[in-house]
Amino acid sequence: MEKKGASVVITHHIKDGKQKEYENWLNKIGSVSKSFDGNIDWQIIRPIPDLTFNYTVIIRFDTIENLKIWMESKERKQLIEEITPIFTKDDNYRIKTGLDFLFESEDEKPKPPVRWKQYLVTWSAIFPLSVFVPLIVLPIFKSINLSDNHYLNSFLISGTIVFLMIFVIMPNYTKLIRKWLFK
After folding, report:
1. Closest CA to 40 of 21, 16, 58, 22
2. Domain count, the chain
3. Which of 47, 79, 88, 155 could form a disulfide with 13 if both were Cys (CB 3.0 to 4.6 A apart)?
4. How do 39-45 and 54-61 pair as beta strands?
5. Are residues 89 and 153 in the same domain?
6. Is residue 107 part of a domain?
C-alpha cells in the first residue's frame, strides 16, 4: 500500500446561534476521528463571529484508504446524523491527496492543476517565507529570552511557515493566479 497522505476538506454551514452546540459536537467527532488508524491531524477553521457561519474542517490521514474508512464509517455517519438539524446545507466534503487541497478552484468540479505548476507556485511562496520569517521570528525569540536552540528554532519557524502557507498565502495567491494555474 502506497503511503501518500490524503486530506478531506469538510465545510459545514451552521444555523445562527448554534455555534456552541456545533463546537461541542466537534470535540466529540474529533476524538472519534483521531482514534481511527492513520489519522495524522485535525484542523478547524472557525467562522468570523457575527459575519460568517461556515466551519471548515481539514482532516489528514496517512493513506487514502484509511481516510475513506473514516469517512464511510458507521461512527461518522451516526455523528453526522446527530448534528444535521443545525446545518443550513448538507455535509459537504472533498477528498484530496497530498497538498491538492491548497490549490482549490471555484469551478463546480474542481480539478487540481498540473504538478509542475503546483511545484512552481509552492516554491515561489515558500522561498520568500523561508528567507523573511527567520529574520522576523528569531529577534522575537531573543527578546523573550527563548533559548538559542537550533532544533526548537527550526521547529517554530517551519510551523510558522506552514501556518502562513495554508491559512494566509495559498488561499490568496491561488486566487491571484487562478487563470494561469487552472489553465
Report:
1. 58
2. 2
3. 88
4. antiparallel
5. no
6. no
C-alpha cell at 4: 501518500
DSSP type of residue 40: E
Give the span between the Cα atoms of 30 and 22, in whole angstroms.
12
Element (H, E) at 27: helix 19-34
Quote the cell numbers at residue 136: 522576523
Residues 45 and 77 in one domain: yes
Q: Give the sign of the dihedral formed by CA 66, CA 69, CA 114, CA 178.
A: negative
Within 8 A by CB and 6+ apart from 160, the residues are: 133, 137
List the one residue out of 52, 59, 53, 96 whose CA is nearest residue 79: 59
Q: Say how many Å lie between the first and final Cα of the chain, rounded.
A: 32
- Final residue of a domain: which of 32, 63, 98? 98
The model's pLDDT over 9-64, given as tens digits with 9 standing for 90+, comes to 888 888 888 889 999 999 999 999 999 999 988 888 887 776 666 888 888 888 88
Domain co-membership, 59 together with 88? yes
Q: Is residue 119 part of a domain?
A: yes
Range of the domain at 133: 115-181
List helix spans (H) across 94-169: 115-143, 150-164
The mean pLDDT value for 86-96 works out to: 80
Cα–Cα distance between 181 and 170 in angstroms, integer?
Answer: 12
